[in-house]
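Action item from last meeting closed. Structure (140 res):
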């Protein structure tokens, strides 16, 4: 069976909106609609799972040549828990050790501060756009 993609995944692959993906793929064979049907009191709510093969077939037809889709990497989803801060600290410490940072070095302390500040700034940017971020080093 083919890997199932969300409308968000396909929108990222096709570089278009999720609404457009839903309009294109909602009635195609093989697409699974997990949403609720429309009735008189409520608007239709769509939650699609789109097989990778269906996306590849659609893009191949549009491009006129064979297209292979690479599934975008998904961020690990975590629910906020009381231990989230402890886990974040442990992950930062692990990354620091792997990159040879020393806690007593003044330059390394600046790196810790810079990483923390940049992580905080990224919370204001949609995660789908993080790959566009370019960090410039500050002049001292």
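Sequence:
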């Amino acid at each position: 069976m083919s890997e199932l993609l969300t409308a968000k995944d396909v929108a990222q692959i096709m570089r278009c909106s999720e609404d457009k993906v839903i309009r294109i793929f909602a009635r195609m064979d093989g697409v699974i609609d997990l949403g609720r049907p429309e009735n008189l009191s409520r608007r239709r709510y769509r939650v699609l799972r789109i097989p990778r093969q269906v996306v590849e077939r659609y893009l191949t037809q549009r491009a006129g040549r064979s297209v292979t889709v690479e599934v975008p990497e998904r961020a690990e989803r975590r629910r906020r828990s009381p231990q989230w801060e402890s886990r974040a600290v442990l992950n930062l410490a692990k990354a620091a050790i792997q990159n040879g940072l020393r806690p007593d070095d003044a330059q390394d302390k600046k790196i810790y501060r810079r990483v923390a500040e940049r992580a905080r700034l990224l919370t204001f940017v949609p995660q789908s756009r993080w790959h566009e971020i370019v960090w410039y080093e500050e002049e001292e």
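Note appended to the action item: The radius of gyration is 21 Å.
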